Predict the structure.
Amino acid sequence: MNTRWSLRNRLVGLFILAAVVAWSVGAAWLTREARREAEVMFDASLMETAHVVLAFAIHEAGQRVGREEDILDLTQVEHAHIEHLFYQVRSPRGDLTVYSPGAPAAPLADAGERGLADHMVDGTAWRVYSLADPRSGFSIHVGEPAARRDALAQAALLRLAVPGILIILLLAAAAWWIAGWVVKPVERTARHLDALNPGEDPALAGAELPREVEPLVHAIARLQQRVQQALLLERTLTADAAHELRTPLAALRAQAQLAQRAATEDERREALAATMEAADRCTRLADAVLTLARLDAAAFNPQRAAAVAIGGIAALVVRESEPTASARGVVVEVAGERIELRADPDAIAVLLRNLVDNAVRHAAKHVRVEISAGDPVLIAVRDDGSGVPADARERLFDRFYRAPGADDSGSGIGLALVKRIAMLHGGRVAVGEGLEGRGLGIEVRLPRAFV
């Protein structure tokens, strides 16, 4: 089961979370401030009540001479919240002589205590204000249960929580609707992309897409173009390879048949040698096709590549070509500067191998590999052969193309491989001048940033 959140759910969830956190912080701050203000008001009520009741009690005490204890009806004193306040009046001797209905039997405070204080009386927390009249000697303790204050604070918090919760629910509904409206273009784009046929352009009109989605759609369009190009290259490569393999395979079969019908040992040996040559050509062609297919699907990141010595790779390739070059009477040399390049060493070796092999097959006597550290870096292989007509030079880098007059020993893919490797490294290839005013030169230029 897919447990990932949708974009809409995530937006709504984060919005609600932010609203809840903001409301909680605000409610906590308001509750703290309201409670602090309420404590000040409640304490002021205690103090005001103490002054009123003490004066009333002194007046009453003057009219009730001889009575040691009595109960004063506190309801005769007009004051807000008076029904939740309790008092005890002490006589000049310190005895509790007057108290309110419901007041605890135990003293709310000590006889000599004055001002505001918190006390535990019979297991109950009280907030008590004590006041004394120095002229008459009477004193009073007015108290309020702390639980009453807590109940009032909780009731105030509840009155704040109910509308807060309703507001959050309304905000959640609004956020759900807004998120749906915001992601609707994304959903529409997804349906559009899902309905595309191969080869269709996924781009939509800019007015239909939010700016945040446009880069994604354009990236998908570029990806589809690359996929289409890769598929086209694959189909072209497969068709061309099948076509090119028909000739050496036909030659291979013909030579095998000749070997079967050979009347003498020399004829059979000659036919088998031709068969081996055709098989070698098939092998070279298959290797070239596989290499080109691998390069078509490759990607190169110069930041992750190690620096390689181009001159060292060129010298190795030249040594490998010496047997073939010597057999043709061709001298191959390397000339140039010492350069290290961030590159794929295997790909650079394939590039140089194909260039040198191509030059050796067409050179008269001399092939030169040149390396120069300009901007861009130049890697060139030049020969002194017969060259290529000007009208054929533009097609030299096409796959399976052979210039007029070229021999059949090549695969027709070598220069296409060179072009692909140069492109992978951010470079380009071009046809240049040969040696001594004749022949052909293939020039590869790679960006200086890769050095």
About this structure: The longest strand covers residues 124-132. The chain has eight helices and 13 strands. The first helix runs from residue 7 to 63.
